[in-house]
Amino acid sequence: MLVPLYEAVYERLDVGAETHLLGLGCGSGLALLMAAARGATVCGVDTDEPRLDLARERLTAPRAPGGHGAPGGHGGPGRSARLGPGGPESPCVQEAAANAAFTVVTAFEPLSALDAEGSGAAVSAAASTLAAAAARTERGGAVVLAGWGPPERCATSGVLRVGARLADPMYSPGERREEPTPARWRLCGRDDLEELAARAGLRPDGSGRVACPFGYADMDSAVRGLLSTGLFDAAERATDPTQVRKEITEALHPHRRADGTVWMPNVFRYLICRV
């Protein structure tokens, strides 16, 4: 669903053969795969081991850009894809940075990590992660943050509120609070990306908005797709999976079209910073 975001950022930064890219929270590796297809040397880290396994499979497949079928992803003359668990201090990041400093760092979904506990401590942790990544980036290199756009332009925001409400009925998705909360999502404030960048010691150098519609073949695909994001895990723990699926389905009904497909227009925002 975020392919338009990745493409817009890579086009703006002219990601290509001279790019040494680090993907923070790389997930299942699609953004890294797209960068590798443009000729970039890529390195990715994530705390979700199953998703990291999928990224490794994608990036090391014999026909993948730069892939060669072996763990570590060596392929193409002098190019490689490195993947590992954790964050900027991961051994794979240290190895990649030892060869050459990164020219681009991406944190395409920082707010999911930032708001995992809904606390100021989580914001500080996210800023520390970005600062650690920036320390391995060449002077003038780019660090990219991304988040949801204005809620009135994100149809999916109403569905995601279901997860926050079920996880903690007393929690408002737009509320800032210091104590921990099981809710994993909240509305992205207008200056959230800039605030995070400032805490990480990064200098903003442009931003943009990209349309990223969420489209599904049918209602069942939409429910399964949304559940796969992990944003409803806390809701399932607080209630039960059947209840969560029921309420997601109800929230999706306004977005179901006559042909049975589900379509939700969204806007995502990105901020480019310089080291």
TrEMBL record:
Pfam families: Methyltransf_11
UniProt feature, compositional bias: Gly residues: 66-78
Signal peptide (residue range): none
Transmembrane domains' residue ranges: none
GO molecular function: S-adenosylmethionine-dependent methyltransferase activity
InterPro entries, per the entry: Methyltransf_11, SAM-dependent_MTases_sf
Domain Methyltransferase type: 22-61
Ranges where the record places region Disordered: 61-91
Protein name: Methyltransferase type 11 domain-containing protein
